[in-house]
Known about the structure:
- The chain is of the alpha/beta class and 354 residues long.
- The protein has a domain at 4-190 and 229-254 and 295-315: NAD(P)-binding Rossmann-like Domain (Rossmann fold, 3-Layer(aba) Sandwich).
- It is 44% helix and 16% strand.
- The chain is built from 13 helices and 12 strands.
- Helix 4 packs parallel to helix 6, helix 7 (201-211) packs across helix 11 (318-331) and helix 9 (260-275) crosses helix 11.
- The termini are far apart.
- The mean pLDDT is 94.
Amino acid sequence: MENVILVTGGAGFIGSNFILHRMERDPDSIVNLDKLTYAGNLRSLEAIAHDQRYEFVRGDIADRELVRSLLDRRRPRAVVHFAAESHVDRSIRGPDDFIHTNIDGTFALLEEVRAYWGNLDRQEQAAFRFLHVSTDEVFGSLGPGDPAFSETTPYAPNSPYAASKAASDHLVRAYHHTYGLPVLTTNCSNNYGPLQFPEKLIPLMILNAREGKPLPVYGDGQNVRDWLYVEDHCEAIAIVLATGVSGETYNIGGWNEKRNIEIVEIVCDLVDEIAGRRGKSRRDLITFVKDRPGHDRRYAMNASKIERELGWRPRETFESGIRKTVRWYLENDSWVRDVTSGTYRQWIETQYSS
C-alpha cells in the first residue's frame, strides 16, 4: 500500500480545494477520480496538473470495473469521497442523477473498497480509512429557537438531494457496522470560497453584482444557513482523516449563522467597495423571486465535538472569509468566463426566470 489518497469528485468545488490544500502540505500522492459533470472543472487544478504526485482519472464512481482497477493499480491508503450531485434546485427539477451518483455510486464505491480492503494485510487494514463527506441538509430544517444539529440529531431530509445524501450516509455507517470497514463521516455546513461553481448563492451574487444584473433571492430572504470557508473545511477533513476514530461522525461548521438576505447585502457592499460603485448601491439590484419547493428555513451546526476531540476550529471569521472570496472572484476573470458559458447560462436563465 502506497502513500496514495484516492479522491472522488476532486474536480468539484470542495474536492479541488482539498487536493490543492493537501498537495501543498503533504507528501502523499493523490489520484483524482471525477466524472467531469457540469460542475467539475479541471481549470481549478491547473497549478498541480503536471505534478508527478498527482493523477487525474476521468470516470464514474458507479463504474465498478474502473474503480477496482484503480484501487489495484495505485493501492491507496485512504479514500476521500466527495463525488456527489449537490445542488438542491437541480435535485428538485431532476432527481435521477442524484440517485445514480449519491446512492448507487456510493454503494458501488463501497463494494469495491470493501473488497480491496479485505485483501490488505492486517497492518494495512488497520491503517486504511474511507472518509465520506456529507452535508448538514440530511438533518432537515430547524426552527428559530431550536438547538443546532449535533452528530446525534435524527435524520429528516426534505429534498431529493438531502435524501440521497442521507441514504449514502446510512450505507457508509452500515459498511462499518456490518463489515468492519474503517469509515469516517463528516457532515458540513454551507461552504463558500474560491473555485465554487457560480450557481450557488455567494458566487452568483458576486458575479451578478459586478455586472449590474438582478440579484435573485428566494422568498423573503430570511432562510438561515451556517457558513464555512472552504479552506477551513479542507483542514478539518485532513484532521479527521489523520486522527478521527473509525466509525465516528464529525460535524464541521463555521459558527456563522446568517440570513440569506444578510449575505447578499454583505456581498453588495464588498463589491461596491472593491470593484467601485456605479452610481447607486448594488443593494438596489436585489430582487425577491418565488421560493423553491420545501425550502428549509434554518440550518445550524454544533461543531463542538470535532473541536473537543480533534482540536479543530475554523480559522476564518465570516467577515475575513467573505472578503477573500469576493476579491478572488473579481480577480479571476478567466476562470469565471470558462465556467459561466453555454449550458451554465441556460441553467441560470431557466432557474431564476421568475
